[in-house]
Specification:
The structure is a single chain. The protein is mainly α. It has one domain. Helix content is about 80%, strand content about 0%. The chain contains twelve helices and two strands, in the order βαααααααβααααα. It has a two-stranded parallel ribbon. α2 crosses α12. The longest helix is centred in the last third of the chain and has 45 residues. The protein is globular and about 70 Å long. The two termini are about 25 Å apart.
């Protein structure tokens, strides 16, 4: 087990001039092996399940807080209008649109006293992420929970703008999907993919750089966050496609559709967290490979043996 200070002394953060294209090519070539080597000593599936547990507690409070704050930006009536277009953009047979609209409408009119408690519950997600990141990096520290909760507060403050970016395209998506033409549907998926990519990547990069106890540099965090966000955005579109499938989600649970639906959501949230944690490990390993590459280059410039 190592400490944060010990890891930082290993030169993970870049200094001086950035690596050239040759160094990046070497790092990308060695990155799959490095990621596999680290994960061979870790249980990524269990870490993903742990973060999903925190997300199950914090997810709805995060949405409630974001919606309530969004009413300060565009007004409650406009938020309710966007909730109706979101319902129209989602597959009707699954019932997901009606659930999303109900949650957003209720959150838009909730009291600020309730929103304050929602903020406390939502901050649990930062604790879950920090614990998972620290465990994957084998970092020990004190007050992990509070550090993670405080580090995620700026994301909660920016959540209304990110939410409005996602909801803002739902009128267009509802129109495109209602046409029923393959070209219109493809355009809608493309627009949603890119908007979701930006909305997901910004919080991811922040979590890699600020929430993690042993963070990479800002440059690596941004590259890793946006690269990971591209995959997560694709998985989100896959979840939407999943909602279109004529699957009886309640069949394994005695016909209880509510239990089957929430179980399916948790399964997809777990998959999304596996992608996020894998992206974090890849970002960290890229930083370490770049640091090693710089050390070797420095020794070669001084004429000293690298090994």
């Amino acid at each position: 087990m190592s400490t944060v200070a010990a890891r930082r002394d290993r030169g993970q953060r870049p200094t001086g001039r950035g690596p050239g294209r040759g160094a990046w090519r070497q790092v990308l070539g060695a990155l799959p092996w490095a990621v596999r080597s680290q994960l061979s000593r870790q249980d990524l599936l269990l870490h993903g399940a742990a973060v999903t547990f925190y997300a199950a507690i914090a997810g709805v409070p995060m949405l409630m807080l974001a919606v309530r704050l969004a009413t300060l930006v565009v007004g409650e009536d406009h938020v309710r209008y966007l909730s109706t277009t979101l319902e129209a953009a989602l597959p009707r047979g699954s019932g997901a649109g009606a659930v999303a609209r109900t949650v957003i409408d209720q959150a838009a009119s909730t009291s600020w006293f309730v929103a304050l408690f929602a903020a406390f519950a939502a901050s649990l997600y930062g604790e879950g992420l920090r614990r998972a990141y620290g465990s994957l990096d084998r970092v020990t520290e004190s007050r992990t929970g509070w550090r993670g909760r405080i580090a995620v507060l700026p994301v909660l403050a920016a959540a209304p703008l990110l939410l409005l970016a996602v909801l803002g395209i739902t009128p267009l998506l509802a129109t495109l999907f209602s046409e029923g033409r393959p070209a219109a549907t493809a355009l809608g998926v493309y627009v949603a993919l890119n908007v979701d990519w930006i909305a997901v990547s910004v919080p991811l990069a922040w979590s890699f750089r600020v929430v993690a106890p042993d963070p990479p540099s800002w440059r690596l965090a941004l590259v890793g966050g946006f690269a990971t966000g591209a995959f997560i955005s694709g998985f989100l579109q896959g979840f939407t496609l999943f909602l279109w499938l004529p699957i009886d989600l309640g069949a394994p649970f005695g016909g209880n559709q509510a239990v089957g639906g929430w179980t399916a959501v948790l399964l997809w949230v777990w998959l999304l967290h596996l992608v996020a944690l894998l992206g974090y490990v890849a970002t960290q390993q890229a930083g370490r490979l770049l640091a090693t590459r710089r050390e070797v280059a420095a020794l070669e410039r001084r004429g000293e043996p690298a090994g």
